[in-house]
């Protein structure tokens, strides 16, 4: 669609604000499309009875959560333990109660220890007033002989006591009575070891096959700010660690001994009890009863949840990193190099991991050897299976091997908030739900196969009466959001489909919802089998004409427990749309490269290829996540406006929805509130259309809200720094205002995320203006939105003191030579190209020069405008893996590329006797990596760096910097091998800092200059190295 229509959008929006509801049909514009008409009586709601969107096209999980011990119910249970020599199971509650119960169906729990009640009998602490929380229980391997068990609990400090209790977390030994049922003798307490209490405690206890006691500890703090004690890499205390002690021996002044083979014994300022360190909040660990491997689930901070197979002396990164993501990279690294986690789970699928067990039971032979674990927030439970590979994989090495993930299917329906896993003496698994206090086990699921009737064509969904005409079915109604997401020039139609006469609920006060994330209060609730529909259309070229074609219809379906996204790709003849595969798809469309006004109409000029991405079902939930409340367009602030269907006197959408029975209002006490009326909606928030009559601040904040805030909010997974871009947040609480960027400044002078008064120093503005890697948003669009950027630039300029006006210099042919030097000089020309205001010889000359620029910030402003040369478009900075994987590669051509001097592959890697062994030897890489994994390592070299090839940044006292792999380090010198395979020797007494780099020595963008076919050729050559 032409840029002129953006101007018409603004005019239409302003006119609508002035003359109100008398406007029946506003002009068609980018932000407002001609509406879809209701079918049926507009003054009376019709039921939707034709839905076929039920279940899922994927098969149901193979297992189900089955309640056990129906006579047992606990209050906030946190642990399950087993005891040698007895079939009893033991359950611990957060508030300090321990129970035992016989392992039989009708068992009732018996009190094992009540810490609060027995507090007077425990060893006193002068700083404490009582029990804090219970964390761990384990029985001595020789329990049948010595009757010892070990309990980890915390103490609550006295009122007015400053700071934390230094010994506020206890691991104590108790005697267990030889009675039926057994009881702990509280007076028998003997404190074994203590560490600081507060916040992330860890506190899990397990005996290894070596007979030593393993204890988990966290960083002792709350979630924000991250690691305020800076203890993650500080091994002078016991926090953020896995401890390993011998409780059968005692040393001077200690009720335990340190095993002689502990990894840090004798190292200055390092506690010898530490077995591994660098954990944030290790929530539940376990020992594989067959191999002795130690497994830990580590609760992440802002982006990742982690699972580790813990190695002797391992450093797992916190708080320098959270998984692969830098958090506090400037701090000193601990006494071991950082190891990456075995598993990283993004916050789109996990928010609070609960470590589990390697299954060794007999009930499910097919699960034997799988690590079964879950997530407390998202309720998912997985069975992760790994395979061994030669040293140098994504985990720590052991005896020349490491583990690589083979598969990780979800094995039950996500409806249990798992606080802990446990196993009985036979190796069968149990797990606890925190909310209900119920214990579960696994059973085979008899729910049958996938819903074979799930609609594979849009016409089969029951949403449309006539899909080719895009006419909604009876009972399905359109709705119109205030602020629209930018999706590369596509326009959108929205529909609401509520089954039968069910209703949406608006809460006057947000509240938690059953089955949803525990820490979030929701503003709305939707009925089971709600479907929200969005159809995207694009102006494509048909010869010399532009025609609007429907490209994609997206469904967001709520099945009563989870929201799931599905995409349907429209056929070229526009008669129907087909369900896109689970992993998504791509399709190229010819669109106008520019255009000009001719006799009052818009005439396209030039042609470019626009590749449309149909996102995978996992990617759908990246934006439609629990923290953003899933439904992004159907919210009160989006709906608070007049709808755009024909006829005057049409009420506000919130009024219409609540008066006609599509929605209801509920007070904090669950009493029904009256429907919205025109007066009430004036007190409700409303997002501002980009081109409306609202204030500049309202339009800019709304634009950020609709394009960014679904991810850039706490828990949304939007970055290392918690950016709060929700429009309801005051600007000074968004963490962007005058804040230095932590994810790169792109060479901008004195850069800030948002530099008040100066768009050209604002990384936020640059990320939105560029093409390729690092562009934001990274899902949903790949091209800058010039009109949106105009508003953002004007807004940023207005935030200066004093406020500045914003005017772009003209993109004249005379000044084009400067356009390729800086962001400030280049943006007016990139904008002019996007709007079709720079054309002919001037544009051709500019793009010719831009094509010669090396990859970098200035070139990225023009990348998407560069002409496609012979052989097809290059991969550029934002390659599409699906396109490459769909091609058949030629290994001989790939070999030529690998040893090509410009590619530089052989400068770091050997294949056979050719090349250099700076990085991994690739001679047999095809044996240990799948085709998809190999491609990912080529496109994202820093995503998975094997520990022995990790790069470090070294800074010396004279302010020189070096980067390379550490070859040798001692007190006298530090030796690096840099990216050119040169050894750099640095005197030890000149080293100021040594920090792990988050980047591989293989630079990002190494593949940018290849065509998809060349990438497929190189990939095929590597695949065949077996």
Automatic annotation (TrEMBL):
It comes from the Bacteria. Coiled coil: none annotated. Residues 32-62 are annotated as: Disordered. The keyword Metal-binding applies. Residues 32-44 have a biased composition (Basic and acidic residues). Keywords: Heme, Iron, Metal-binding. NCBIfam families: CxxCH_TIGR02603. This is Glucose/L-sorbosone dehydrogenase, distantly related to bacterial beta-galactosidase. The lineage of its organism: Bacteria, Pseudomonadati, Planctomycetota, Planctomycetia, Gemmatales.
């Amino acid at each position: 669609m032409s840029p002129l229509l953006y101007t018409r959008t603004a005019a239409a929006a302003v006119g609508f604000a002035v003359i109100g509801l008398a406007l029946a049909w506003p002009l068609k514009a980018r932000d407002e499309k001609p509406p879809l008409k209701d079918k049926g009586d507009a003054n009376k709601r019709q039921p939707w009875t034709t839905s076929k969107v039920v279940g899922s096209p994927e098969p149901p999980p193979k297992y189900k959560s089955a309640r056990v011990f129906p006579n047992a119910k606990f209050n906030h249970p946190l642990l399950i333990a087993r005891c040698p020599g007895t079939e009893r199971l033991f359950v611990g509650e957060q508030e300090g109660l321990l129970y035992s119960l016989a392992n039989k169906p009708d068992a009732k729990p018996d009190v094992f220890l009540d810490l609060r009640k027995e507090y007077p009998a425990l060893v006193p602490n002068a700083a404490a007033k009582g029990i804090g929380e219970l964390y761990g229980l384990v029985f001595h391997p020789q329990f049948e002989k010595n009757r010892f068990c070990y309990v980890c609990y915390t103490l609550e400090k006295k009122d007015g006591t400053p700071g934390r209790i230094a010994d506020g977390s206890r691991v104590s030994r108790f005697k267990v009575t030889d009675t039926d049922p057994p009881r702990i003798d509280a007076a028998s307490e003997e404190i074994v070891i203590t560490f600081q209490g507060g916040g992330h405690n860890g506190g899990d206890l397990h005996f290894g096959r070596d007979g030593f006691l393993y204890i988990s500890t966290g960083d002792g703090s709350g979630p924000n700010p991250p690691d305020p004690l800076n203890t993650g890499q500080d091994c002078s205390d016991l926090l953020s660690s896995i401890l390993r002690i011998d409780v059968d021996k005692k040393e001077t002044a200690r009720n335990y001994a340190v095993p002689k083979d502990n990894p840090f014994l004798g190292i200055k300022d390092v506690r010898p009890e530490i077995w591994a360190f660098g954990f944030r909040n290790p929530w539940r660990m376990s020992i594989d009863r067959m191999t002795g491997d130690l497994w830990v689930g580590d609760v992440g901070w802002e982006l990742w949840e982690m699972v580790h197979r813990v190695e002797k002396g391992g450093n797992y990164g916190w708080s320098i990193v959270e998984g692969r993501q830098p958090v506090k990279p400037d701090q000193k690294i601990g006494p071991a190099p950082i190891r990456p986690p075995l598993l990283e789970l993004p916050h789109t699928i996990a928010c609070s991991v609960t470590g589990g067990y390697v299954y060794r039971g007999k009930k499910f032979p097919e699960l034997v050897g799988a690590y079964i674990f879950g997530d407390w927030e998202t309720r998912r439970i997985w069975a992760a299976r790994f395979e061994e590979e030669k040293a140098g994989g994504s985990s720590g090495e052991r005896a020349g091997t490491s583990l690589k993930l083979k598969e990780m299917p979800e094995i039950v329906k996500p409806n249990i908030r798992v606080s802990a896993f446990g196993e009985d003496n036979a190796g069968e698994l149990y797990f606890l739900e925190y909310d209900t206090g119920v214990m579960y086990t696994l059973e085979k699921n008899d729910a049958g196969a996938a819903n074979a009737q799930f609609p594979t064509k849009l016409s089969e969904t029951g949403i449309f009466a006539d899909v080719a005409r895009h006419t909604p079915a009876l009972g399905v109604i359109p709705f119109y959001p205030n602020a629209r997401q930018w999706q590369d020039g596509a326009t959108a139609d929205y529909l609401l489909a509520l089954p039968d006469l069910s209703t949406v609920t608006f809460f006057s006060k947000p509240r938690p919802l059953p089955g949803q994330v525990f820490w979030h209060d929701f503003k709305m609730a939707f009925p089971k089998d709600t479907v929200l529909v969005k159809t995207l259309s694009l102006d494509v070229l048909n010869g010399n004409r532009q025609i609007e074609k429907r490209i994609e219809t997206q469904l967001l379906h709520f099945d009563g427990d989870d929201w799931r996204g599905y995409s349907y790709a429209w056929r070229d003849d526009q008669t129907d749309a087909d369900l896109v595969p689970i992993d998504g798809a791509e399709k190229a469309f010819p669109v106008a490269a520019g255009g000009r006004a001719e006799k009052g109409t818009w005439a396209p000029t030039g042609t470019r290829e626009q590749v449309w991405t149909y996102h995978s079902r996992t990617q759908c939930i990246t934006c439609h996540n629990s923290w953003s409340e899933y439904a992004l367009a159907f919210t009160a602030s989006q709906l608070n406006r007049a709808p755009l269907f024909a006829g005057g006197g049409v009420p506000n959408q919130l009024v219409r929805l609540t008066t006609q029975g599509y929605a209801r209002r509920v007070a904090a006490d669950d009493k029904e509130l009256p429907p919205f009326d025109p007066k009430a909606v004036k007190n409700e928030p409303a997002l501002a259309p980009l081109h409306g009559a609202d204030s500049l601040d309202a339009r800019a904040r709304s634009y950020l809200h609709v394009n960014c805030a679904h991810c850039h909010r706490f828990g949304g997974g939007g970055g290392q720094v918690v950016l709060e871009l929700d429009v309801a947040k005051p600007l000074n609480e968004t963490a962007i205002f005058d804040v230095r960027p932590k994810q790169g400044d792109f060479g901008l002078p004195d850069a800030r995320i948002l530099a008040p008064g100066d768009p050209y120093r604002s990384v936020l503005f640059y990320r939105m203006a560029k093409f390729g890697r690092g562009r934001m948003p990274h899902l949903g669009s790949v091209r800058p939105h010039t009109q949106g950027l105009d508003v953002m630039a004007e807004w940023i300029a207005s935030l200066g003191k004093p406020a500045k006006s914003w005017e772009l210099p003209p993109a004249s042919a005379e000044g084009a030579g400067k356009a390729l030097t800086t962001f400030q000089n280049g943006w007016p020309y990139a904008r002019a190209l996007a709007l079709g205001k720079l054309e002919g010889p001037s544009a051709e000359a500019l793009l010719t020069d831009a094509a010669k620029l090396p990859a970098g910030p200035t070139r990225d402003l023009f990348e998407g405008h560069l002409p496609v040369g012979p052989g097809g478009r290059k991969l550029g900075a934002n390659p599409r893996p699906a396109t490459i994987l769909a091609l058949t590669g030629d290994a001989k051509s790939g070999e030529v590329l690998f040893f090509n001097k410009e590619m530089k592959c052989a400068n770091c890697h050997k294949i056979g006797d050719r090349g250099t062994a700076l990085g991994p030897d690739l001679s047999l890489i095809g044996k240990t990596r799948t085709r998809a994994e190999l491609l990912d390592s080529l496109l994202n070299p820093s995503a998975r760096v094997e520990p022995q090839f990790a790069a470090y940044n070294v800074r010396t006292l004279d302010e020189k910097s070096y980067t390379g792999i550490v070859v040798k380090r001692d007190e006298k010198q530090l030796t690096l091998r840099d990216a050119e395979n040169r050894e750099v020797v640095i005197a030890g007494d000149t080293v100021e800092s040594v920090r792990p780099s988050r980047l591989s020595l293989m630079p990002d963008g190494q593949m940018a200059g290849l065509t998809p076919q060349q990438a497929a050729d190189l990939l095929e050559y590597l695949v065949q190295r077996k």
